[in-house]
């Protein structure tokens, strides 16, 4: 992808409205109210209801980084959210008991399903920038609504960590979290995410930020 395209990225003009739901969410944000999803919802609730620190990785892709974190920090419960079914199905059989992977839109999970004050850490590595403007307006993850939903879900001292190689997307994210406090980067393991590996290979700059509600 050309650097020019990255530099020309702009956030959507207006926040997507969400009367009665989350616009553009995978399967509709009321998906998990449907009877065929009852078991998935119960499995999610059973996982997050177990006491102890809960960390979330949004968009884990091949899951290599997440699996390494899960093994490196066995005292943490890890929830991996990914909209691509094949990625979830590939990782699920390898998941130890402290990992739950779910094919679910992070906007639905944080907006409607996550108990308040439950999460200690949210990792969003290389969120999809959505180059198509129409899709960006509907699907961009890091919006004021998502930030507020994450704030509600975070436990005291909880952090959100974001990395991207799209400079203007990072400017948008930094503005979004301007009212929060900068926080130390959360601990990580030895394995990098798929996109981190691509950036290292191609010499692409990565912007990172970690914030906690002020
Ligand atoms: C650009 S990729 C980055 C993948 C990985 N985090 C990395 O660093 O290589 C973005 C990932 O987020 C997933 N994704 C996009 N929107 C999502 C959402 N709303 N909820 C959960 N996952 C999402 C995509 O399917 C994709 O795997």
What count of helical segments does DSSP give? Answer: 9
Number of strands: 7
The CATH homology group name: Vaccinia Virus protein VP39
Order of helices and strands: HHEHEHEHEHHEHEHE
Rg, rounded, reads 16 Å
Estimate nothing, just give the exact number of structural domains.
1
Instruction: Summarize model confidence as the mean pLDDT.
Output: 93
How far do the termini sit from each other? 36 Å
Give the CATH architecture: 3-Layer(aba) Sandwich
| Coarse morphology | globular
The largest sheet is: 7 strands, mixed
Which percent bin holds the helix content? 25-40%
**Which compounds are bound in this model?**
S-adenosylmethionine
Account of the protein in words:
By secondary structure, the protein is of the alpha/beta class. The chain has a single domain, classed as Rossmann fold, CATH 3.40.50.150. It is built from 9 helices and 7 strands, in the order ααβαβαβαβααβαβαβ. A 7-stranded mixed sheet has the order 3-2-1-4-5-7-6, with helices on both faces. Helix 3 links the parallel strand 1 and strand 2. Helix 5 crosses helix 7. The structure holds S-adenosylmethionine.
């Amino acid at each position: 992808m050309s650097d020019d395209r990255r530099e020309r990225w702009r956030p959507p003009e207006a926040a997507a409205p969400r009367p009665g739901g989350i616009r553009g969410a995978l399967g509709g944000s009321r998906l998990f109210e449907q009877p065929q999803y009852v078991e998935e919802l119960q499995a999610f609730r059973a996982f997050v209801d177990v006491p102890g620190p809960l960390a979330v990785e949004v968009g884990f892709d091949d899951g290599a980084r997440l699996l390494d974190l899960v093994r490196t920090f066995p005292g943490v419960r890890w929830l991996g959210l990914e909209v691509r079914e094949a990625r979830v199905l590939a990782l699920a059989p390898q998941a130890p008991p402290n990992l739950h992977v779910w094919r679910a839109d992070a906007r639905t999970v944080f907006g409607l399903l996550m108990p308040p004050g439950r999460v200690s850490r949210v990792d969003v590595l290389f969120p999809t920038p959505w180059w198509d403007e129409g899709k960006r307006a509907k699907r961009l993850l890091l919006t004021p609504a998502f930030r507020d939903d994450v704030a509600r879900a975070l436990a005291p001292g909880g952090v959100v960590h974001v990395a991207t190689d799209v400079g203007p997307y990072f400017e948008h994210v930094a503005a979004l979290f301007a009212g929060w406090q900068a926080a130390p980067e959360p601990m990580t393991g030895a394995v990098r995410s798929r996109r981190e590996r691509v950036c290292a290979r191609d010499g692409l700059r990565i912007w990172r930020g970690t914030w906690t509600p002020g």
